[in-house]
Amino acid sequence: MRVLLINPNITDSVSALIRAEAQRSASPGTEVDVLTAPFGVAYIETRFEALLGAYATAQLAAEHAANYDAVVVAAFGDPGLAALREVLPVPVTGLTEAALASAHLLGHRISIIAISQRIQAWYREVVESYGFSSRLASIRALDRPLASIGGVQDEHAQALQDLAERAVAEDGADVIILAGAPLAGLARSLHGRLPVPVVDGVSSAVRHAETLAALKPGRARQGSFSRPPAKPHRGLPDAIARLLDSPR
């Protein structure tokens, strides 16, 4: 089995974190590859940045997805996930969707620990879009400058743990999700140090992607996730144009 993870931001150090956690989490025999967005921003905090990340992800997915059994949008917030599900020939999941799917099997009230205050509004909207608003206990986030996005979990490990502990004690969280690719792997070091289960988006996404590929559920030929209707287009990258023009 081959799983492709696409980092929608341009930071190679974040891709390295994604790759390390994906390789630790994958089943024996599963090959994981990570690609980094060729354009965009260092890390995604806002709706507009997510728009840029979604387009970069779409370009890489159009170029490479046919060689894989599943694709993962490797950023919390899952920029472009639903749109990719319409056009790709393989299953697609993302860090938020997969983390929520794991968390809801472990407890009822879910808290998300994030890396910045600005990111909270967008995350809340994404959680709502997945139907988990009633299960969301809180989103707590760092409120300090980030010297290096790839070094967030090392630089702010204690602060992130403190946020998680407060989410349990003050917000009633049954499960903690550590949000975002920059925190990939942190759940392993916090294992046993928090009084509730801790969920990592990358490890969840890899495992859910493997499951979806193994189940071979088929793809939508009708409904809202069927392929977009054929129509004229202009100025698109070749791979995206080919994807749009492929047989329905």
Strand element count:
8
**Could you give the order of strands across the largest sheet?**
2-1-3-4
What is CATH's topology name of the largest domain? Answer: Rossmann fold
| H-E string | EHEHEHEHEHEHHEHEHH
What is the CATH domain class of the largest domain? Answer: Alpha Beta
Identify the overall geometry: globular
pLDDT average, as an integer?
Answer: 95
Q: What's the CATH architecture name of the largest domain?
A: 3-Layer(aba) Sandwich
- The number of domains: 2
Structure description:
The protein is of the alpha/beta class and 248 residues long. The chain has two domains: 2-94 and 204-245, 3-Layer(aba) Sandwich (Rossmann fold); 97-200, Rossmann fold (3-Layer(aba) Sandwich). 43% of the residues lie in helices and 15% in strands. It is built from ten helices and eight strands. It has helices at 12-25, 47-64, 81-87, 95-103, 119-129, 152-155, 157-171, 186-190, 201-215, 238-245, and strands at residues 2-7, 31-36, 70-73, 92-94, 110-114, 136-141, 175-178, 198-200. The strands form two sheets. It has a four-stranded parallel sheet, with helices on both faces. Strand 3, helix 3 and strand 4 (92-94) form a beta-alpha-beta unit. The longest helix is centred in the first third of the chain and has 18 residues, at 47-64. The protein starts with a strand and ends with a helix.
